[in-house]
Amino acid sequence: MTRFTTFALVVLLAAGSLVLTVGVSPWWGFAAVPLLAVCLLGVYDVVQREHSILRNYPVAGHMRFLMESIRPEIQQYFIESNTDGEPFDREARSLVYQRAKATEAEEPFGTEREVYATGYEHFVHAMCPLPTPEEPPRVRIGGPECRRPYDMSLLNVSAMSFGSLSSNAILALNTGAARGGFAHDTGEGGLSEYHLRPGGDLIWEIGTGYFGCRTEGGDFDPVMFAAKAAQPSVRCVSLKLSQGAKPGLGGVLPGPKVNAEIAAVRGVPQGKTVISPPSHRVFSTPVELIAFMAQLRELTDGKPVGFKLCVTSRRDMLAICKAMLEVGTAPDFIIVDGSEGGTGAAPLEFLDHIGTPLTEGLITVHNALVGTGLRSRVKIGASGKVSSGSDIVKRLIQGADYTNAARAMMFAVGCIQAQTCHTNTCPVGVATQDPRRARALDVADKSMRVERFQRATVRSATQIMASLGIHNPDELHPGLLRRRIAPTEMRSYAELYDWLEPEELLTDPPAAWATDWKAATPDYF
């Protein structure tokens, strides 16, 4: 009830002032009238559907908007002071909100970026730009063994589980995906009715806990998996090896949070703490991993199957590629998760010091697949702080075929980065299992915002590619992206990084890769 304390106090004061106006003196009316007006404002806050924070905090919630209108940097200060991971900067967050609400406007006075600062990046535009295509390109996911390929959008909803997000947040994301024709990754928390009910395309993620397809002992259950993978909404299956926020670490879901609904979705006992191990039980070598990929594809009746990882060493990635060559098959896609963080709760030292950043991770995976002649069979997804069209194009240049966004999609459904996800008291109903708080998130309104944000961001990406003189994302190359490495010097990505030629590792490994290539073996990580 603390959410309504301010509103309740105003109601009591208004009622008291009315009594005093009638029974004591009409002069009390000067207090009663404004208090009644505030009461009406509180009633409107509860019934309106645009602002979740006002539905949860009638009257009091207006203080946030007042503070932002006076000094917008105040909110950014608290975000940067209290965040568990690296927050989105104010510009990126503002862009997501504007596109979600269809209020994006042109900036009249040029860039706010420090263009001469080390690390500044820009694209090289064409002297003869192309017109922006009416329909954005899509990416065909499915290698030679895949019988039911899927055409992926350039931007999709990244992995966020039911349990970490509320039922209404999942419904809004999937409804937006259904309306906009893009994919929604379930996260490793299992397939819930909130993923399935709207009918949006799903990437079903399977983690080390095998939630939703596990035996009582916690092992993978192929029969249960096949039955759920047959759902029409499940278009791809992704096996999570690791995630950017906490690579090499499993998860713990405390018993008090495992209510009856979450227990049923995950296939675990209600009220008991659930521990996700750091590694999988069904494989322990690269060869076993690739063989398991082939098994999953058969169990799905030929749907695309891949895996997600935060890149470890170059040697391990090359070991997986050697396993693909030895087994004679490959995953249909690999999702590269950057160590920049994400929405997953993680120890601070893991966030700051473990895992490969997305740029280096993408380039490593892309080069490993190119150098072994496997790139044409395996598509690459990029997951990590994607919030704009320029982010999409940047990741495509670095080696990805498509992108996924998590935090940006959370902003689209109303997240304000209050950093209270772990307390179950999310003020806008996004990251909570409290049904009273979750009801503040209006699914119809927020699903439209998700759709608008995704559509506007992909449109921006296609506009940027057209300005670079690019017809198709396949034509993007590292020479189109440049980075300032000193106040008076810029280099293109073609100069900053090594880029292997097709099958170069199989014929004549370059010196920079030769040691790792020789050390990599398909028999162990």
What secondary-structure arrangement, pairings included, does this model have?
Layout: H1 5-23, H2 29-47, H3 52-56, H4 62-70, H5 73-82, H6 90-100, E1 121-123, E2 139-141, E3 150-152, E4 155-157, H7 167-180, E5 183-185, H8 193-196, E6 201-206, H9 222-229, E7 234-240, E8 251-253, H10 260-266, E9 274-276, H11 286-299, E10 305-309, H12 314-327, E11 333-337, H13 348-353, H14 358-371, E12 379-383, H15 389-397, E13 402-405, H16 407-412, H17 435-438, H18 443-467, E14 481-486, E15 489-492, H19 493-496, H20 504-507, H21 511-519
Parallel strand pairs: 4-13, 5-6, 6-7, 7-10, 10-11, 11-12, 12-13
Antiparallel strand pairs: 1-14, 2-3, 8-9, 14-15
First and last CA, distance = 53 Å
Number of domains: 2
At CATH level 3, the topology of the largest domain is TIM Barrel
Relative strand content: 5-15%
CATH homologous superfamily placement of the largest domain: Aldolase class I
- Mean pLDDT, as a whole number? 89
Q: Tell me how many strands there are.
A: 15
Form type: globular
Low-confidence stretches: 76-86
Largest sheet: 8 strands, parallel
**CATH architecture label name of the largest domain:** Alpha-Beta Barrel
Measured as a percent range, the helix fraction is 40-55%
Tally of helical segments: 21
Biggest sheet: strand arrangement:
4-13-12-11-10-7-6-5
Secondary structure category: alpha/beta
Q: In CATH's first tier, which class of the largest domain applies?
A: Alpha Beta
